[in-house]
């Protein structure tokens, strides 16, 4: 894509925050340094924080590109990004967590790579590193076992020595940072707000695959993920894990065949993570978490019937 063509493309950057002003203040300068300049920033504030609102107003007053501040109810990562998309005007949309930092050419490399990809490639995945290290957070996602619908980050905790520098098609992707063509939303919705948090990107990737769309890595585009650290308590950690496991079962039921769902439920969840742990006495706390997730899935299944409202 020639530079003149780059100027005609608009990217919408969506960042959902929840009391994340300190992270946002680190992300914002990395956006200002981007070699690609034609983008807007949409800050969706799930906490309706006065300090975040004032910071967004400061950015607007200082002439920082188009900044859109959206106060929002706390409907999680999923609902916040769905709200953000409604305000986006870009040809491409970049979803990024507030605790990320983009290298100066990240956005340009993603936009240029899209110009070389077939129209059915709807998502590009950057190389996500942990903080300012060479340790990989994610370069896409894959199933842990082909017979079960449980995913893991590709390259997680590996040292980056160029082993993933060849672009590749991936089964799914991490929600910390990715870019997609806006026209994807003509064929399907972005996220199901009912998920709140966890496995929403896997759900999207599975729906894309059924439509003949795909996701590829763009390893030359690098994002540093600061990682917010553990939650405030083990109780909060367990609550989030329960939601993630519930969501895993929901998207498996919706997007795969009955055989894959039963294998995931019976082998992946019940046998490996509940009965197997009970029999071996291994990590009883985690066994309880999986049991709670299974109960939540069963009791809330009706809540996930039917399609979500259009994004």
Brief sketch in words of this structure:
The protein has 311 residues and is α/β, with parallel strands linked by helices.
What spatial form do the alpha-carbon principal axes imply?
A: globular
Distance between the termini: 30 Å
- Main sheet overview: 10 strands, mixed
Q: What is the CATH first-level class name of the largest domain? A: Alpha Beta
CATH superfamily of the largest domain: Spore Coat Polysaccharide Biosynthesis Protein SpsA, Chain A
Helix proportion of residues, in percent? 25-40%
What is the residue-mean pLDDT, rounded to a whole number? 92
Detailed description of the structure:
With 311 residues, the chain is α/β, with parallel strands linked by helices. It folds into 2 domains: 3-225, Alpha-Beta Complex (Spore Coat Polysaccharide Biosynthesis Protein SpsA, Chain A); 234-301. It is built from 9 helices and 12 strands. The protein has helices spanning 3-6, 21-32, 50-61, 76-87, 106-116, 200-210, 234-255, 258-280, 284-299; strands at residues 11-17, 39-45, 66-71, 92-96, 100-102, 121-130, 136-138, 141-143, 151-153, 169-170, 177-181, 214-225. Strands 1, 2, 3, 4, 5, 6, 7, 10, 11 and 12 form a 10-stranded mixed β-sheet that branches. A two-stranded antiparallel ribbon has the order 8-9. β8 and β9 form a beta hairpin. The longest helix has 23 residues, at 258-280. It is globular, with a radius of gyration of 19 Å. The two termini are 30 Å apart. The mean pLDDT is 92.
């Amino acid at each position: 894509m020639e530079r003149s063509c780059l100027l005609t493309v608009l990217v919408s950057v969506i960042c959902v925050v929840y009391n994340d002003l300190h992270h946002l203040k680190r992300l914002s300068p990395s956006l200002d340094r981007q070699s690609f300049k034609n983008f807007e920033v949409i800050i969706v504030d799930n906490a309706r924080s006065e300090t975040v609102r004032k910071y967004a107003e400061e950015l607007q007053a200082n002439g920082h590109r188009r900044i859109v501040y959206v106060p929002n109810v706390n409907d999680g990562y999923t609902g916040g990004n769905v709200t953000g998309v409604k305000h986006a005007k870009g040809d491409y949309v970049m979803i990024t967590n507030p605790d990320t930092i983009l290298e100066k050419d990240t956005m340009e490399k993603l936009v240029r790579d899209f110009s070389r990809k077939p129209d059915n490639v709807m998502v590009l995945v950057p190389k996500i590193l942990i903080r300012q290290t060479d340790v990989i957070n994610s370069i896409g996602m894959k199933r842990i076992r082909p017979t079960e619908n449980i995913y893991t980050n590709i390259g997680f905790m590996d040292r980056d020595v160029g082993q993933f520098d060849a672009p590749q098609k991936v089964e799914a992707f991490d929600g910390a940072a990715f870019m997609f063509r806006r026209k994807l939303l003509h064929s399907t919705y972005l996220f199901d707000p009912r998920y709140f948090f966890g496995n929403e990107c896997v759900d999207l990737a599975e729906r894309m695959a059924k439509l003949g769309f795909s996701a590829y890595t763009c390893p030359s585009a690098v994002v540093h993920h600061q990682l917010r650290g553990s939650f405030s308590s083990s109780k909060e950690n367990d609550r989030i894990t329960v939601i993630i496991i519930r969501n895993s079962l929901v998207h498996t039921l919706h997007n795969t065949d009955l055989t894959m769902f039963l294998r995931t439920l019976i082998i992946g969840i019940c046998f490996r993570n509940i009965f197997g742990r009970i029999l071996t006495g291994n990590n009883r706390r985690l066994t309880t978490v999986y049991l709670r997730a299974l109960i939540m899935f069963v009791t809330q299944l009706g809540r996930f019937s039917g399609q979500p409202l259009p994004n």
